Amino acid sequence: MTLASTGDGYAHTSAPATANPRKVLNNAVAVSPAFSLGRRAMRAWIWTLQNALPPALTTALLLLIWQIAFSQPGASLPTPSIVWSESKDLILQPFYWAGSQDIGLGWRILTSLQRVAVGFGLAAIAGIAIGALIGQSIWAMRGLDPIFQVLRTVPPLAWLPISLAAFRDANPSAIFVIFITSIWPILINTAVGIRNVPQDYRNVAAVLRLNTLELFFKVMLPSAAPYIFTGLRIGIGLSWLAIVAAEMLTGGVGIGFFIWDAWNSSKLPDIVVALVYIGVVGFVLDRLVSAAGRFVTRSATP
Q: pTM, whole model, 2 decimals?
């Protein structure tokens, strides 16, 4: 109780203001480090349950089915237990080096990734540039689009004899196969994105009197970025597929040649391990391009 003076000259009593209990509790809890730490741990645990646990359980179930299906004597494929017992060195020591050909799968993956980086990088530059030209010019689209539609249907390995005849070396031939395989989705998606730039953006650029380069870099590319990165995601997947297939025929120390050599040596467990490596690397490449696309499209909105 408190005394309050009023206009009639008398002092009156008034009840103290009562705070909202829930608000007081929230304020007290918010400043508690232990509660904050516990809340973060709870969120991490919930995230693990929602995102990590389902694929882990699915993988365990598939391995169990695989183990049961091929555990009979004379089975055509090795079971997961056999793969582990015969090829665990490839899994546990991916970066060992015992000679020019006796190396771990990690080094082979890096060799293949170097070729992918060169071929895919060239495809990205050429695909975006040509796609922007086709998307901006109706005459370029009419002249080039039919040719590109024919060329993009050629299987990747069909280009390998041509590239070997032209470059007379396995490494540039493999890079060319990557380039010619991955350029088409980048080119086509870029052209579609440029054509779908809103007319309002073009009108604003005309009012601001932007030159051709300013229009391209400040308006066209930011607006078409979602389409471009969709093409890049498809292209990086095709690049990884193409290099594995090309290395099977061109040789060297890449992951593709390792699979072919393991097949000739009847080492099926080694092939299984290599396939897992290839799948994991392809997944990581896709996620990297996807993350770059989200960052660019979030920060490059015109």
A: 0.77
